[in-house]
Design a protein that fits this description.
23 helices; alpha/beta; 15 strands; 49% helix
Length: 630
């Protein structure tokens, strides 16, 4: 359909124009109703975002620094996302409804824009079909029902608005300046906006007349490239790098290519994520695509199919570092924007493929909605119990067992990361919370009984379940005195001194010459534990050096990278305090395996191991030895 024909449809024959607009807005309203917040609550990264953005000054600082003032390992420039959480806090405080409603409204606006673009670029009927499909597709759950998922849902609004305004400009209307302005807003929201210039080029090719496509693409795209160049220069000034992302992200072309195929399949067939679905049912979910593609080709829309396929690849590029990581199925939310192009192929097939697709997606949609609702209700109960304990108990950190990382179906995160933010304002008094669970769950991981950690003086060890909380009693073990050689502050300089043998720091267990010692470091997200031999078996006092704890201590019996030195990288960077309580137990191995340790005594006092925030940089070799000479 040409621009003139579309304009005539929307303006002439008043009744038809009104009906067209009514359908577009009805689809957007339907998507809002379908994703309306039901018993919403915070989860995982939300607690980090909310506690950080509750202070408006901190939120504004993100315009000139890394997101959430993160000191390293992750490099994101997303100040509008942080500011949106500050707005949520201003409107609703610690109530999650406002944040979740914001995500649902953003998705409804995106659905409106997808429908408008579809009507212009495909045809009127295909545009309505595309709006319905994209508005109700179940793989969007993580971008809408998770408050932090707004990095996708909010950013996509600005991206689609920029593209829609660009198409209007290509049709001879005003709006180019607004298209560039919304591109800037997208860049201030998430790195996903890097795809906008490429998308503009594809749109120009799609709407231009034959023979003028390359010229039109260049004319439309170069202002966006110029704005992008300015943004990258500013980003480099702020972050010290052009792209950023996760520090340890790696890209392997072969593995990434295979992984992209798996992600595309998960988006195309929501039944792959349904509990208990048979192989036959999952296979039927794929039958939609040959039908839709055949119908599209029968309607002579091959060129549109090719452009949509290119659009999917383009929109997926920012997620390339995650393509090979196919185990974490929740990452399907990264394909929120690419799904527009993929579902456009179904919409091109016409009404019947669209109806079939909506029918196939109905049960996966209902299931994922129920899973999120149940997980949020459970998280709300657990958090309410913690907040009540914060009000009732004397001062002191809480050591809490029973904080689930995710729901039982493994598709909704709960208290995965940052539990030390659970009682920070606006949620509580600021009391520290440490989860009693392994920080890293993996085969062969060493387990410490929750009761063993209940002996920390000045702390409250609690078992929490649903709406009840109960204290954990420490086992009746003898105690021994412990003396620290050194101040237990492992700064970069101290780490170099230990590494190069220029200094010695050790833990001395006075009067307890046990064959082995179990040392357990408590971090916010869980503990790291290891079993080490007594380094002075011929002396009356036992001893373990900090160098052995850091470099030789292993939190799991399997895996080459299971050393404590690696496990501490994330806690040192992201815990509210880079200070980790240390539990020391004396005992013996009941066999050859480290997990057969049986404690017979424990230290009489609390020790704390401190690390600097640049610990991860030191670990990666980015911090030089200040005493090094040429």
């Amino acid at each position: 359909m040409s621009a003139a024909e579309l304009h005539a449809t929307l303006t002439n024959g008043k009744g038809e124009g009104r009906r067209a607009r009514a359908w577009v807005f009805a689809i957007a309203l339907l998507s809002l109703i379908a994703w309306w917040p039901l018993s919403p609550y915070w989860q995982s990264d939300d607690f980090f975002a909310v506690t950080y953005a509750s202070d408006l000054r901190r939120a504004l600082d993100d315009f000139t620094g890394n997101q959430y003032a993160a000191p390293g390992m992750v490099w994101f420039y997303r100040p509008l996302i942080t500011l949106s959480f500050a707005l949520d806090a201003w409107l609703g405080g610690a109530d999650p409804f406002v944040a979740h409603l914001s995500n649902a409204l953003a998705h409804a606006l995106s659905t409106l824009l997808v429908t408008l673009l579809g009507r212009r670029l495909l045809d009127q009927r295909s545009g309505l079909c595309l709006g319905l499909l994209w508005g109700l597709w179940p793989t969007h759950a993580g971008s809408i029902l998770w408050a932090v998922g707004r990095v996708d849902s909010h950013t996509t609004v600005w991206i689609l608005l920029s593209w829609w305004l660009t198409v209007r400009w290509l049709d001879g209307r005003r709006g180019r300046g607004l298209a560039l302005a919304t591109f800037v807003l997208a860049l201030l929201s998430k790195e996903l906006a890097f795809v906008v210039p490429g998308g503009v080029a594809l749109l120009a090719v799609a709407v231009a007349q034959r023979g003028a496509r390359l010229r039109s693409a260049w004319r439309a795209t170069w202002p966006f490239v110029a704005v992008f160049a300015v943004y990258l220069a500013w980003r480099f000034c702020v972050l010290g790098r052009l792209v950023g992302g996760y520090e340890d992200a790696r890209f392997s072309p072969l593995e990434a290519g295979a992984g992209l195929g798996q992600w595309a399949a998960r988006v195309a067939n929501p039944w792959l994520g349904v509990d208990g679905a048979s192989d036959t049912v999952r296979l039927l979910g794929f039958m939609l695509w040959p039908l839709a593609l055949g119908c599209a080709l029968w309607r002579r829309r091959a060129r549109a199919v090719v452009l949509l396929a290119l659009g999917f690849g383009l929109c997926a590029i920012p997620t390339a570092p995650f393509w090979a990581e196919t185990i974490e199925v929740r990452n399907v939310r990264y394909f929120y924007l690419p799904a527009v192009c993929m579902l456009g192929i179904v919409a091109l097939g016409g009404v019947w493929p669209t109806v079939l697709a909506l029918g196939l997606a109905a049960w996966p949609f209902a299931q994922v909605r129920q899973h999120y609702r149940s997980a949020h209700q459970q998280a709300a109960r657990l958090h309410a119990t913690l907040r009540q304990a914060d009000r009732d108990l004397p001062p002191g950190p809480l050591l809490v067992s029973g904080l689930p990382r995710e729901n039982a179906h493994h598709d909704v995160l709960m208290f995965h990361l940052f539990p030390d933010r659970l009682l920070l304002p606006p949620f509580g008094s600021g009391r520290r919370v440490l989860a009693l669970r392994p920080l890293i769950e993996r085969p062969g991981g060493l387990i410490v009984e929750a009761a063993a950690c209940a002996s920390f003086p000045g702390m409250h060890a609690l078992a929490i379940e649903s709406g009840s909380v109960s204290p954990i009693a420490a086992p009746p073990l003898p105690v021994f005195k412990v003396r620290a050689e050194g101040d237990l502050h492992l700064s970069s300089l101290a780490m170099w001194d230990l590494h190069l043998g220029r200094a010695t720091q050790a833990l001395h267990m006075l009067g307890d010459r046990a064959p082995h010692y179990r040392l357990t470091l408590l971090t916010a997200g869980g503990y790291l534990t290891c079993v080490l031999p007594n380094e002075t078996p011929d002396q009356p006092d036992g001893s373990v050096s900090l160098k052995a704890l850091i470099a030789q201590g292993r939190y799991a019996t399997e895996g080459d990278n299971a050393a404590i030195v690696f496990g501490l990288a994330v806690p040192a960077l992201f815990d509210v305090e880079a200070a980790f309580p240390l539990l020391i137990e004396a005992g013996t191995l009941q066999g050859d395996a480290l997990d057969s340790f049986a404690p017979r005594a424990r230290a009489d006092r609390l020790l704390t191991l401190r690390l600097d925030r640049d610990y991860a940089d030191w670990l990666a070799g980015r911090v030089d030895d200040p005493r090094k000479t040429n």
